[in-house]
Amino acid sequence: MIIEFSQGKIIANLYDVVVRFNSVPSASLQCHVDAIKLIGRGANVITAHDVQCQWTVKLDNEHQLQNLADFLGIPIQ
After folding, report:
1. Where are the domains of the chain?
2. pTM (predicted TM-score)
């Protein structure tokens, strides 16, 4: 699944989520689905946190977050 947002693309499969930024095409953020937390209520944030990494990306709207949640089967908090 690919979700485009103003800063780039979210590329997701059932195991990993990758964030690619338009402004820095040579850099990407990647995380296993088990380390992902989706935060809604207006924040519309993907947070990845495990022993080896931590990052957060804000999406443009809740629709993008809901599409990712539906695809991955992860609840929005």
Report:
1. 2-72
2. 0.91
